[in-house]
TrEMBL record:
The lineage of its organism: Eukaryota, Metazoa, Chordata, Craniata, Vertebrata. Structural component of specialized membrane microdomains known as tetraspanin-enriched microdomains (TERMs), which act as platforms for receptor clustering and signaling. Participates thereby in diverse biological functions such as cell signal transduction, adhesion, migration and protein trafficking. Regulates neuronal differentiation in response to NGF by facilitating NGF-mediated activation of NTRK1/TRKA receptor tyrosine kinase and subsequent downstream signaling pathways. Plays a role in the inhibition of TNFalpha-induced apoptosis. The chain crosses the membrane at residues 12-39, 59-79, 91-116, 214-238. This is Tetraspanin. Its main location: membrane. It comes from Glareola pratincola (Collared pratincole).
Length: 243
């Protein structure tokens, strides 16, 4: 290629890098804003987005998750956009390093999720079950979110009805939530055991398996974008001296 063609190619890739990372930066800001909203007022979020959001809000703590993801995207977007704009090799290398670390972490998380699903359930149980025992009933927002979740997915608790045994709700009302007995009343221990309603963790896992193709496609798309971003940032880094 002639020097002019090389310069034109470099400029085009640089502009694409700036626009791409500007989009990432704006997306990060949006996710950060939504995350703060969910963390502050999760009930309004559930009222607007419905049952699926209720499950995500309560089981995954989506507010804090979005705050973390939004902050990471803001940093990545800034490094990539500003680094390309200012022709900064330092910022481009930082961008490459951050994306590479995230890429490796995603692969590790995917392997752990596939191989150690039981471990994930154990960790979630250790966190969520005590909250169910303590906050279901006294905390109106928490109770509303879980009621919507259990009704929408026809599930009970995180694992099963025993998550509510010795809970504040059970000690106050001497019954389990109606969802644990397929909404038959009174939902006592005998009826709850007989109803054998599945825990919400298993229901969510089943939903993920049902939509495995979509989840895999999204994951593959994200991985491709990350690889492309690393390739482009390294191209700009290596060709800045030849500019």
């Amino acid at each position: 290629l002639s020097p002019g063609a090389k310069m034109g190619c470099f400029t085009f890739i640089k502009v694409m890098m700036i626009l791409f990372n500007l989009a990432i930066f704006l997306s990060g800001g949006t996710l950060l804003g939504v995350g703060i909203w969910v963390a502050v007022d999760d009930q309004s979020f559930v009222d607007i987005f419905g049952g699926l959001s209720a499950t995500v809000v309560q089981v995954v703590y989506v507010g804090y998750f979005l705050i973390v993801i939004g902050s990471i995207l803001l940093v990545i977007g800034f490094l990539g956009c500003y680094g390309a704009q200012k022709d900064s090799k330092c910022l481009l290398m930082m961008f490459f390093s951050v994306v590479l670390i995230i890429f490796i972490a995603e692969i590790a998380a995917a392997v752990v999720a596939l191989v150690y699903t039981g471990l994930a359930e154990t960790l979630l149980s250790a966190v969520v079950t005590p909250l169910l025992k303590e906050k279901y009933g006294p905390d109106d927002s928490f109770t509303h979110v879980w009621n919507v979740t259990m009704k929408e997915f026809k599930c009970c608790g995180l694992n099963n009805y025993t998550d509510f045994t010795n809970s504040t709700w059970y000690e106050t009302n001497e019954v389990y939530p109606d969802a644990c007995c397929n909404f038959k009343q009174p939902c006592n221990a005998t009826l709850a055991a007989k109803s054998n309603v599945t825990g919400c963790f298993d229901q969510i896992l089943e939903e993920v398996k049902t939509n495995a193709g979509v989840v895999g496609g999204v994951a593959a798309g994200i991985a491709a974008l990350e690889i492309a971003a690393m390739v482009v940032s390294m191209y700009l880094y290596c060709h800045l001296d030849q500019k």
